[in-house]
Amino acid sequence: MAQVALRNIVKMFDKTPAVQGIDLDISDREFIVLVGPSGCGKSTTLRMIAGLEEATSGEIYIGDQLVNDVPPKDRDIAMVFQNYALYPHMTVFENMSFGLRLKKFPKAEIKERVDNAARILDITDLLARRPKQLSGGQRQRVAMGRAIVRNPKVFLFDEPLSNLDAKLRVQMRTEIKKVHQKVTTTTVYVTHDQVEAMTLADRVVVMNGGLIEQIGTPNELYHRPQTRFVAGFIGSPAMNVVSCQLVNGGAGLSVKLADGLAFPVPDARRSRYQQYVGNELLFGIRPEHITERRSDMPGGSHVFDARLDVVEPMGMETMVYFTVGGVEVCGRVNPTAAGNANETMPLVADMNQMHLIDPRTDKVL
Amino acid sequence: MTIATATPGGATRAAAYGSIARGKRRTLYWSYFFLFLFVIFFLTPPIYMFITSLKTSAEISAASNPWWVYGPTLSNYFELLSQNQFLIFFKNSAIVSVCVVCITMVIAVLAAFSLARMGFWGSGTLATGVFLTYLIPETLLFIPLFKIFAFVHDYTGIELINHWWVLILLYPTLTVPFATWLMIGYFASIPKELDEAALIDGAGYFQVLTRIFIPVALPGIIAAMIFTFTVSWAQFLYPLAFTTSADQLVLPVGIVTTLIKGDVFNWGQIMTGALLGAAPPLIIYAFLMDYYISGLTAGATKG
């Protein structure tokens, strides 16, 4: 068990920066997910923790030890790869026990540890098989088993579910969470899938362009994004972002959108936004905060009419799309209340959940 | 061509549309046709050798049908195998080939692993360089090699010319580059995560090589071994140039120099010797053919 700390980590590939100065503290037993689009440096960061890449500058600590110059085998970590990386010429048992055999553990203990891990992962029946005879999900379990038997200080996962089909991915996601609840080891998990990040993580690290955009619990990221990137990246469908002007009307602040729409800003936000009056800003609101008209609407809700372009029934809810100033905006309404395409429908925006983004700094105000 | 030109105008023309089975069958016919040509082309010499090896000298020189044995005899085999000389050639060839295979594999596997995986400065150029040395014709190397041998003799007093064991040092110059190149291609096809997983599991580079790479790349290694064995078993020019005494010769040169006396060709024994000499590679191929093919193709697509 150990905490992991990164201090101003930089990684250059030739002259291209992949990671541009990252600070991160991971506490003992914490499940941290690094998430971001392709090429944001999340995998490189993980590989530097593993020791598979050398940091160009900065310091990496595992426990209290500075590990920059420690080879992977002495870092006491275990890693699960996207393509599983099982040794094809070994049985599942041999795969899982490989690390222990290298470290010359007694045979009885190897067997006990492998059996124990196999029980946790429900692969006891597969121990005599070779990787070729396993399905994708089974291979993934074996790869996790290989990590668990080592009983390392830190687990590292590099997009472990990307090669699985959608259904299996959801199943294995739950599996990973269960395993972490049983084997509480510090875990760093890399994914580009924000749903995976939200469901698994104690804290999520959103990365973009080799930098950390925001670190926070899944709920913090969702409800209080600090940057435009995080606001757009977390949540599906993505947050609606439309350009607006903040104006001071008679009754208080309001955001003036294109097409003559104006939404009043709740009084609670007045002091926060006061200094930006008159600025061109971006108005952000999540689809679930644009709904049909209900009887129990909270204060701060604003009713407006929208002409629907597309209506997408999802079963549990219906997505309605309309445009504001040429930008497509999405709302989530109750299927029974949804209007038809090319018709006008009254919608309600919950302005208590609004965000304002400064387009010059891309920061959420 | 006859089949191809006959069908379009024929009564079966309508069936030609959309008949996959028909197209397949035609492809198969052509495949068999060319395979048959190949078989005739490549099997005629060994069959002729075999037929001739069963004849007496008198029958060979007689103007009878060369493709038929009228009085079959194993006398050529008995004579050859009872000659001490032939057994010495065989022994020399066997020792040289086995040693060359061992030396080549140790060098080639280590070289290929470091060139394919360690990614040190200049490893790419070095890998190309290894292959380029294979392109130098071996005949060009005789004079420099004689020079080197003379130099070694002058400074150490060790005579390298006319010793069968010196071939053990010479052949790897031919086999190591190609075997290394073949292995680089094979090693490159092994996913990088496999060695990374092993490194994290606690293996050093040498353990990654012995416990992961060698077992996983076994087909490639066996292909390289077969290649090396064949090259050193069949090598003719080097032993011809560097060995002269009868007890220092290897099989291919031995057969030619001892069974051709002036203008007298002992055809029956030459054919028998060649046939017996071809047996070991043939047996090895027969048993390891599958490995050989998968090894060669893996190297070909990924190299």
Percent helix range of chain B: over 70%
CATH 4th-level superfamily of the largest domain in chain B: MetI-like
So what's the CATH class of the largest domain in chain B?
Mainly Alpha
Arithmetic mean of pLDDT of chain A: 88
**Judging from the principal axes of the Cα atoms, what is the shape of chain A?**
elongated
Radius of gyration of chain A: 25 Å
How many separate helices of chain B? 15
Instruction: Supply the helix-strand structural class of chain B.
Output: mainly alpha
Q: Helix count of chain A?
A: 9
Described by strand count, sense and barrel closure, the largest sheet of chain B is: 2 strands, antiparallel
Number of domains of chain A: 2
Oligomer: heterodimer
So, CATH architecture of the largest domain in chain A? 3-Layer(aba) Sandwich
Largest interface: A-B, 23 and 18 residues
Alpha carbon gyration radius of chain B: 25 Å
β-sheet strand percentage of chain A: 25-35%
User: N-to-C terminal Cα separation of chain A, in Å?
Assistant: 39 Å
Describe the protein's topology.
The complex is a heterodimer of chains A (365) and B (303).
Chain A: E1 4-13, E2 16-26, E3 31-35, H1 42-50, E4 57-62, E5 65-66, E6 77-80, H2 92-102, H3 107-121, H4 136-149, E7 154-158, H5 166-182, E8 186-191, H6 194-200, E9 203-208, E10 211-216, H7 218-223, H8 228-233, E11 240-248, E12 253-256, E13 262-264, H9 270-273, E14 280-285, E15 290-292, E16 301-307, E17 310-313, E18 318-324, E19 327-333, E20 344-350, E21 355-358, E22 363-364
Parallel strand pairs in A: 3-8, 3-9, 6-7, 7-8
Antiparallel strand pairs in A: 1-2, 1-4, 4-5, 9-10, 11-12, 11-14, 12-13, 14-21, 15-20, 16-20, 17-18, 18-19, 21-22
Helix pairs in contact in A: 2-3, 2-4, 3-4
Chain B: H1 2-6, H2 20-53, H3 57-61, H4 75-82, H5 84-118, H6 123-134, H7 142-156, H8 166-170, H9 172-188, H10 192-200, H11 205-216, H12 218-234, H13 237-242, H14 251-259, E1 260-261, E2 264-265, H15 267-302
